[in-house]
Amino acid sequence: MNGMFELEFMRLAAVAGTAAALSLSILGVYVVLKRVVFVGLTLANVATLGAAMALVLHLPIHAVAIFGALAAAAALAGVASPRRIPPESVVGWGFAAASGLTVLVLARATGDTEAMRLLFGNVLAITRGEAGLLAGIAGFVVALHVLLAKRFVLVVFDPEMARAAGIATGVWTLVLYLTVGGATAAAVHETGALLAFSLLTLPAMAALLATRGLKTAFFVAAAIAVTATLGGLVLSFRLDLPTGPFTVVLLAAIVPVAALIGRLRR
Amino acid sequence: MSHDHSHPLLRFDDVTLGYGGAPVLRRLSFHICRGEFLGIVGPNGSGKTTILRAILGLLHPKEGAIHRHGRPVIGYVPQRERIDTIMPVTAVEVALMGRAPRLGALARLHTRDREVAREALHRVGVVDLGSRLFRDLSGGQQQRVLLARALAAEPDLLVLDEPTNGMDLGSEHALIELLRELNREQELTVLLVTHLLQIVLNAATSILLIDRGRVLYGEAGEVLQEGKLAELYGLPVRILEADGRRTLVVGGRS
């Protein structure tokens, strides 16, 4: 394994993967508990759309992807759905629109390799700058959520009581969605929308199934995400399989195991 | 018990409340003084939640004014059904959330905060359940934990929204007795919103009744008169007393 990490692209992939895994898995606990997992999927697809548009228009890919995801996050946090349909259907609309538009935009792209990378990600093609950006955004997101965990937990658990206590729940929900949007968008270009969405939802699901307390769930989600990401990197390299999809399958396989552990611990 | 009516904790002066263009309640006036137990009673759709939102500062009056004396800290107990119990938080963690109005966003919990939360759980009789997950508790136990959370705020005013919904008779009685005790013995100011007059009949010191736009407000002794209740509800109402406790009989011979 030592030899494997003598290769710079493997080291960068490990740094970027760990950063994305940490930030997305911690945010994922809120996303799963708020029952808004499709918000994560939609934001990942909006970020991909932003990156695709940037590719076609020759604009900075990360900046446009992050801006697009932040704008979508703000809209999803603040928009009130019509009374005749559930809020989730508005999220579904966003997902469908972003996915369709991404394919249409990429049909105009000249470089197939970059277009494929946007759709499926390639954690092994990360540059130093991209790894540094991901690590920086992940560090900010993790620090913010560690420092302000009490507020986020209260706002997610009982927004009505939080409002009565004078807490601006709309602002806190917006910050939560913006961090989800930012972390997802930062990861999408490197990992692809599928792995970013999987890191957001599957470790949190597994942790909530296997553990009892909320604090433990945050730590276990982060541990599962980082272990699966690094394990996926090493194993896919050894088995000569695509890293992103391999890691997604690994994460998906952990969920039923976690459910079994949770059942046995009851 | 006498209350200082010259400085009410909360006073509604000719308040009109509503959403968008249409007022829900017009020219409402009432107040709650320190140490009082005010019951706000009305059927579903009568505007109780609207009043509650205004009390909590979440809805501003269209007309009139709401006066708060010295920015009272409100301990709020929402309807239990509105809380999504999927989150794996323990009873102690829920009680600690009550410290939020007294702590900044970045403040850390100190020993005193934990002591206050534990004492609040003790006061409502669920301190032994502190390490249990909130979602694993019975409805009555959850309601007590939510009450402990409100008490952990060290409130000037305790506000409860339909706290007995979905409770069996025993749990309902125990909760009302607990509120009565907190009010009478520890002089905690209580405001309870319910659709059942019977819930506050023996506990409230003053009552605000709302029915089809009509309002009856005053000290419990003034409001709880058979003639006034019969007029408000359009039904014969009798108030029976046994063992020093009142009960309502509605309908029958007028």
Structure overview:
The complex is a heterodimer of chains A (266) and B (254). Helix content of chain A is 83%, strand content 0%. Chain A has a single domain (4-193), classed as ABC transporter involved in vitamin B12 uptake, BtuC (Orthogonal Bundle). Chain A has 266 residues and is mostly helical. In chain B, the strands form three sheets. Chain B has a six-stranded mixed beta sheet, sandwiched between helices. Chain B has a three-stranded antiparallel beta sheet with strand order 2-1-4, with helices on one face. Chain B has helices at residues 48-55, 91-97, 111-123, 139-152, 169-186, 197-200, 220-223, 226-233; strands spanning 10-19, 22-32, 37-41, 63-68, 74-77, 157-161, 189-194, 206-211, 214-219, 237-242, 245-250. In chain B, helix 2 packs across helix 3 and helix 3 (111-123) packs across helix 4 (139-152). Chain B contains eight helices and eleven strands. By secondary structure, chain B is α/β, with parallel strands linked by helices. Chain B folds into two domains: 1-72 and 162-219, Rossmann fold (3-Layer(aba) Sandwich); 82-155, no CATH class.
| Beta-strand content estimate of chain B | 25-35%
State Rg of chain A. 18 Å
User: For the largest beta sheet of chain B, what order do the strands appear in spatially?
Assistant: 5-6-7-3-8-9
Largest sheet of chain A: none
Order of helices and strands of chain A: HHHHHHHHHHH
Oligomer: heterodimer
Number of domains of chain B: 2
User: Treating each run of at least 4 consecutive H or I residues as one helix, how many helices of chain A?
Assistant: 11
- Report the largest inter-chain contact: A-B, 25 and 27 residues
* SSE arrangement of chain B, N to C: EEEHEEHHHEHEHEEHHEE
Tell how many strands the DSSP assignment of chain B holds: 11
Categorize the overall geometry of chain B.
Answer: globular
Number of domains of chain A: 1
User: Helical residue percent of chain A?
Assistant: over 70%
Classified in CATH, the superfamily of chain A is ABC transporter involved in vitamin B12 uptake, BtuC
Mean pLDDT of chain A: 89
According to DSSP, the number of beta strands of chain A is 0
